[in-house]
Each structure stands twice: as structure tokens, then as C-alpha cells.
Design goal:
By secondary structure, this protein is mainly α. The protein contains eleven helices and no strands. The longest helix is centred in the middle third of the chain and has 15 residues.
Length: 187
């Protein structure tokens, strides 16, 4: 039985643009899990910049947020609250401009920018080269004896342009399920 027949299509992990304070990973863009921040602001259903900025450092430390992550979170929240980072405007910008605006903020790197492009803005060619699921998935797809380097991953993925984002979902899903759909190894 084909894995896609067995499990169906992979889910499209989606987040609203406001998910910058809690992107789909173990930690948020500023290193904050959504559940962590909600623990200090229970009445709200989502994290917003103002509620984050209203918390003192001690409250954040009680939920395990480090000093560095607090700084990153405050920088990001202030950029959004002060309209230096306009989340709705990011939706209309080219991918490279979104990346540039995001990585200009402390605590936001290339991986976070790609995950944001993929899951919040639904960009078809977002490609998180350094993502572990992508790396291990690529290793499995290509039946490599060791994990490929970033340059090797990028070279292989060129054939998948402009749909590398879709491939990312397939690699993640297969990685999580422990199998790969037949035929993904075909050039």
C-alpha cells in the first residue's frame, strides 16, 4: 500500500501571520512557545505584542523564558506594536523582501523566515534548508549514507522549483510517519 493511500495527504501546517510570537516549532521566533506565553496571559486566546510587552521579566522567567529570549521577544513585539514590522504588509511582499525584514530583527534567522513564509504566508517555494525534517527526509529520499550538506540539499532541490514548499510538506510528513511515498526519489 502506498504511504499516501495509507495516510492520506500531509496536513498543511498553517499559522496566521501573528504567529511570529509562536511559530510551529518547539520555540517561537523569539524562542517562546505559544503555550508558555499564554500561561501568563490566560484570558487571551492568542499572543499579541501588547500583552507580551506588558509582562515583566520575572513573569517570563517563571515560565522558563531566558534573558536572551525575553530580549528577542520584546524586540519582535515592539517592532510589531510600533508598526516597524507590518505583518499584513508582509503578505504582499516578494519572498526575499519578507526574509530581509524578518532576519533584520534580533532572534529571527533564516530558518524562522522560511517557516513563516511557508506556514503563515503559504509561499509555494519556501525552502527551509536547515530544517531537520527536510535534511533527514532528503537523506531518505535520495538514499544517502549520511545527512546531506546544505549545498547538496539546495542542489537537489533546484529540480523542485517553484514548488519546494510543497516538497517540504511531503518531506516533513514522511519524516514524521517514518516512510516516504514511492516515486519521490525519481528525478
Amino acid at each position: 500500500m502506498q504511504p499516501l493511500d495509507r495516510w492520506g495527504m500531509p496536513p498543511l501546517w498553517q499559522r496566521p501571520p501573528s504567529a511570529l510570537l509562536h511559530h510551529p516549532g518547539a520555540t517561537g521566533v523569539a524562542g517562546l512557545g505559544a503555550g508558555d506565553v499564554r500561561a501568563i496571559d490566560r484570558p487571551r486566546s492568542a499572543v499579541d505584542p501588547e500583552s507580551f510587552l506588558a509582562q515583566d521579566d520575572d513573569a517570563l522567567r517563571t515560565i522558563g523564558v531566558s534573558r536572551q529570549k525575553t530580549r528577542y521577544g520584546r524586540e519582535l513585539a515592539a517592532a510589531i506594536a510600533e508598526d516597524r514590522l507590518d505583518l499584513s504588509a508582509l503578505q504582499t511582499l516578494p519572498d526575499d523582501d519578507v526574509r530581509a525584514q524578518l532576519v533584520a530583527l534580533p532572534g529571527i534567522g533564516a530558518w524562522t523566515a522560511e517557516i513563516f513564509l511557508l506556514t503563515a504566508l503559504h509561499r509555494a517555494d519556501a525552502w527551509p534548508t536547515t530544517d531537520l525534517g527536510v535534511i533527514v527526509g532528503m537523506q531518505q529520499v535520495k538514499q544517502l549514507s549520511q545527512r546531506p550538506t546544505r549545498d547538496e540539499i539546495d542542489a537537489i532541490a533546484e529540480a523542485w522549483r517553484p514548488w519546494r514548499g510543497a516538497v517540504t510538506y511531503l518531506l516533513w510528513y514522511s519524516y514524521l510517519k517514518g516512510q516516504l511515498p514511492e516515486g519521490m526519489n525519481d528525478e
